Amino acid sequence: DGGITQSPKYLFRKEGQNVTLSCEQNLNHDAMYWYRQDPGQGLRLIYYSQIVNDFQKGDIAEGYSVSREKKESFPLTVTSAQKNPTAFYLCASTRGGSAYNEQFFGPGTRLTVL
Amino acid sequence: GEDVEQSLFLSVREGDSSVINCTYTDSSSTYLYWYKQEPGAGLQLLTYIFSNMDMKQDQRLTVLLNKKDKHLSLRIADTQTGDSAIYFCAEILSGAGSYQLTFGKGTKLSVIP
Q1: Is A102 in contact with B45 (Cβ distance < 8 A)?
Q2: Which of these, B48, B61, B52, lies nearest to B92 by C-alpha position?
Q3: Is A54 on the interface with B (CB under 8 A)?
């Protein structure tokens, strides 16, 4: 079955530590996205990538970094510079390149910084 | 202000119809979407409408689009307890060859048995 996987589902880290969230897709999609979701805030775009080895900042990129070395993978690192990292993180992908842009979402990773 | 606005909460009785409303600001949006998020899960696309349509029906779901007022609504007929979730309205923005979705904050639908 094709889809997007995110691991782990729950992640706990101490303040000041960097942490990397995994996102893998086997849908052969070109574009991938990272969103942050806070209660009552909807989804806010952190980074996106339209093609391998290329990515752009979204609305709230400060304190985060990404890489896109493979089409299937788009890991997100939450650095110690992110002031309030506790949130639900969602990864998504889409075929890209057209106005009809159904995004397929992973199950999410809930990060808690202690 | 927000690009896409929705009320945050809606409560209905099982069997009644639910209507979730959304306003958006980009008149050039070509597609508008409704996503559903169940607790602790990712989002799933429920339905979408192309901007040259006024209405789209898919089983219990009816989407109405008023382009003049930039108003989108989702009607769920015969609402069931399994419909309890957060519903997100989203519009597509195009620029520099990429297509980004802008989401509303989501409407939490609670279905009372």
Answers
A1: yes
A2: B48
A3: no
Q: What is the per-residue pLDDT for B106?
A: 95
Confirm or reject contact between A78 and chain B (CB < 8 A): no
**Tokens 């620029």, located at residue:** B95
Q: Which amino acid makes up residue B36?
A: K
Q: How far apart are CA B40 and CA B34, in angstroms?
A: 18
What letter does residue B83 receive in the DSSP assignment?
A: G
Give the C-alpha separation, B83 to A74, whole Å: 31
In chain A, % of residues over pLDDT 90: 77
Half-sphere exposure of residue B94: CA atoms within 13 angstroms, side-chain side:
13
Would the CA dihedral through A3, A8, A14, A20 be positive or negative? negative
What pLDDT digit, counting tens, does each position of A25-50 carry? 999 999 999 999 998 788 999 999 99
Cβ A42–B100 below 8 Å, yes or no? no
Distance, in angstroms, between B51 CA and closest chain A CA? 11
Q: Which residues of chain B have pLDDT under 50?
A: 1
B99: nearest CB among A41, A90, A101: A101
Q: CA A52 → CA A28, A69, A71, A100, B21, distances in Å? A: 12, 6, 6, 21, 37
